Amino acid sequence: MNGPIVSIARELGFEGNSILEGLVVSIFIAGAFIGSISSGSLVDKLGCRRTVQIDTIPLILGAILSAQAHSLDEILWGRFLVGLGIGVNTVLVPVYISEVAPTKYRGSLGTLCQIGTCLGIIASLFLGIPSESDPHWWRTMFYIASVPGFILSLGMQFSVDSPRWLCKVGRMNDAKAVIRNLWGASEVDKAIKEFQSVSRNDGSDLDSRWLELLEEPHSRVAFIGGTLFLLEQFSGINGVLYFSSLTFQDVGITTGALASLYVGLTNFAGALCASYLIDKQGRQRLLIGSYLGMAVSMFLVVYAICSPLNEQLGHNLSILGTIMYIFSFASGAGPVTALIIPELSSFRTRGKIMGFSFSVHWVCNFLVGLLFLDMVEKFGVAPVYAGFGGVSLLAAIFAYYLIVETKGRSLEEIEMSLNPGVRAKDK
């Protein structure tokens, strides 16, 4: 959105008004916050599959409304609707994958969220190239942005409901059929027994309540989820991405699109690495290693800025630190955070805990965007990057002491280990 905003502002009559330009960009976050909060109740009532299909409505309408906008109000409504859809979508996709994926491959399949995001960013970079010569190309870009919504809605028609949700709403035969098709016939009886055991002992009501997030063990998981996203955002990923184009310019890469492409490819490589390692090394190790790598990378950039090195060496170290940071983030902190929260959550409160956690994500995303440039202007890049490195170290410590390893365990096994009361009742 940062590229087309200049053309949008010029055509819709608010060019040069930085407040309105910022509002067009940031109202997306307001919509995403509301979408995240509302997603939990929708998942409880409708299940992931139908909720995803309904969620494509604001995604499609928002993109088309933005493409046809002829006033500030119209572009704001369009951006808000897209944000609303993205807010719901970011919660639903990790939950859906965690509930339908076989235990053995749940981690690798969960990283597809990050891989898909990277591919989408790279595709958008190529789609944005004509905007440099065509001031009206932003409308075409928004029209193109509506296409994935149609594809997603159609594709989910041929997808399956979560077997856990089917079991909870009493559609036992459908649940068995899904398990048989996805996990194999040998898993049917064991899975159904686990579903029923957990469902019987964590409450029989279909809908959970928000106040349950204040009770153990749900409050602990909600705290972990919210804190992970807070640490993720304040470790500086958006700030580093913002400054990455300037860093690349220092070594002669003057084209913003080319710099963004390097960043996107690094992100993609890190996500592929996470996909390969996550079910081998586990979530906790990947998180710790990722944040330690991010901390080292930030301190390397700080060293390059503050030490009396020759100019070329300093620029090269800054590039190396930036690339290392982005790769480290994409290979752990990025994909694992959204994956491990639904794994740690009980089925009863999974949607609401994810909704709460992602609402923290969007609030922190907004705050970092609001404060980052002011902090850089006031203190300089090096102290801000040092702060990002410090937060990354805190995140590694947090992951070491508070994250429970979930590799190779079914969601029901994880829930029973975190909530001994379930096992006690079952006996």
From TrEMBL:
GO CC, alphabetical: membrane
Transmembrane region(s): 20-40, 76-97, 109-129, 141-160, 256-278, 285-305, 317-341, 353-373, 385-404
Record localization: Membrane
Keywords carried by this UniProt record: Membrane, Transmembrane, Transmembrane helix, Transport
Occurrences of domain Major facilitator superfamily (MFS) profile (ranges): 1-407
Main location group: membrane
Tree of life domain: Eukaryota
Mode of membrane association: Multi-pass membrane protein
One Pfam family in the UniProt entry: Sugar_tr
Database matches in CDD domains: MFS_GLUT_like (cd17315)
GO MF annotation terms: hexose transmembrane transporter activity
Matching InterPro entries: GLUT, MFS_dom, MFS_sugar_transport-like, MFS_trans_sf, Sugar/inositol_transpt, Sugar_transporter_CS
Protein family: Belongs to the major facilitator superfamily. Sugar transporter (TC 2.A.1.1) family.
Protein name: Major facilitator superfamily (MFS) profile domain-containing protein
Gene source species: Liquidambar formosana (Formosan gum)
